[in-house]
Write a structure and sequence with these properties.
Layout lengths: L4 E4 L9 E6 L6 E2 L4 E6 L4 E5 L4 E6 L6 E2 L4 E7 L12 H11 L12 H9 L18 H9 L11 H16 L2 E9 L1 H16 L6 H15 L5 E4 L2 E4 L5 E3 L1 E2 L5 E2 L2 E2 L7 H16 L13 E4 L20 E5 L3 E9 L2 E17 L5 H16 L3
Parallel strand pairs: 12-16, 16-17
Antiparallel strand pairs: 1-8, 2-4, 2-7, 3-6, 4-5, 6-8, 9-19, 10-11, 12-15, 13-14, 17-19, 18-19
Helix pairs in contact: 6-7, 6-8
């Protein structure tokens, strides 16, 4: 009797639940070892599960939209030696289902389409030619497809994606678990902007785009080293202080949700290193190519909501089990009182609001204000 081979949900450090997105193969199809077999989606990344051996797909136990846990059995394979006789070819409805399951991801779309767009096109049996793209250079966005499907009908419903459900659960749990308190400071970004003007071309030559977010990450790394209680996780019997500053940066995926790639050991990077890593992670996030390790192990998070025009957002929900999150508002020119050498004058400066939302179980206003003061001083004195 032939022993089947199990296809297992990969284990991960955080025990994150996943949802089956699609099967690349149908029952009866031949598979090669390490060939992508099924795609799973968590609240953070999509993961392809490869075939553990060559053979024939004999049984599918978990189907699209099913939730799965690490180490659960997804399917079973008949090994290659038995693949010719183990399973009869599918017929009728099962053959049609197999053909649908086996369709490659890219079959529904040509051109530079994001994974979320390809998925929605397939789910709604649409082709790119049917959609008017509103993105850069006419690119189709997930929002374009949602509008097309919903039309102008009143009361239409857009089903939640797996990512949106996970985000909702994570946010609701954080608010229920931790008392959120927000402190507000204002930062003069004039020195940072002058530094960026002097060095952006040099950074470009080295492959890095010098964004303002890179300065905020670097400033946070310095402040976290000076105030380790902010670089921590709250536990029932202790505050766990982390040795490394692993700074997550909230990255919007349009209507596809939000993801937080992590710059690990940010305290060891100079500004160029931060800019390079940040650019790589953001590009991977928007292309749907983040690896699981890119979103693991964060100890502090930045939400740069100002890139969308927001001046202030409070409270920003803490990314549990972290104890604080920094919010960055829109940079704008404002009339301010400028003090220089003991003299005051009126001037126009580039200002933005910074908020720090804390878990009040772990931190108090004194610590929050000291941390934000350190960040503001670092930005305003940048050389």
């Amino acid at each position: 009797m032939t022993t089947t081979i199990e296809v297992i949900v990969p284990a991960n450090e955080e025990g994150t639940r996943a949802t089956v997105l699609r099967w690349y193969k149908g029952i009866g199809d031949s598979v090669a070892k390490d060939e992508p077999l099924v795609e799973l989606e968590t609240d953070k990344v999509t993961v392809e599960v490869p075939a553990p051996a060559s053979g024939t797909l004999a049984e599918i136990l978990k189907h699209p939209n099913d939730e799965v846990q690490p180490n659960e059995v997804l399917a079973r394979l008949n090994p290659a030696t038995a693949s010719l006789t183990a399973t009869a070819p599918a017929t009728g409805d099962s053959a049609s289902a197999s053909a649908t399951a086996a369709a490659p991801i890219g079959a529904v779309a040509d051109g530079p389409l994001s994974p979320a767009v390809r998925r929605l096109l397939k789910e709604h049996a649409l082709t790119p030619a049917q959609i008017d793209g509103s993105g850069r250079d006419g690119r189709i966005t997930a929002q374009d497809i949602t509008r097309h499907v919903s039309g102008d009908a009143h009361g239409s419903r857009v089903p939640h994606t797996s990512m949106r459900r996970r985000i909702a659960e994570h946010m609701a749990r954080s608010v229920a678990l931790a008392p959120h308190v927000t402190t507000l400071f204002e930062a003069d970004m004039t020195q940072v902007l002058a530094h960026r003007d002097r060095h952006s071309a040099e950074f470009e030559r080295q492959g890095a785009r010098l964004t303002l977010t890179a300065y905020f990450v670097a400033a946070c790394a310095r402040a976290l080293r000076a105030h380790p209680e902010v670089n921590a996780s709250f536990e029932e019997d202790a505050l766990a202080l982390h040795a490394d500053c692993n700074i997550g940066v909230g990255t919007a995926l349009g209507s596809g949700g939000l993801i937080v790639p992590v710059i690990h050991c940010a305290q060891q990077l100079d500004l160029l290193g931060v800019a390079l890593k940040l650019g790589q992670l953001v590009a991977a996030a928007r292309a749907g190519k983040l690896a699981p390790e890119d979103v693991r192990g964060g100890t502090f998070t930045i939400s740069n909501h100002g890139v969308g025009g927001s001046l202030l957002a409070a409270p920003i929900i803490i990314n549990q089990p972290q104890v604080a999150i920094l919010g960055i508002g829109k940079l704008e020119r404002r009339v301010c009182v400028v003090e220089k050498e003991g003299l005051e004058s009126i001037g126009v400066r580039s200002m933005c609001y910074l908020t720090l939302t804390i878990d009040h179980r772990a931190l108090d206003a004194f610590q929050a204000n000291a941390f934000l003061s350190r960040i503001v001083a670092t930005l305003e004195q940048w050389i």
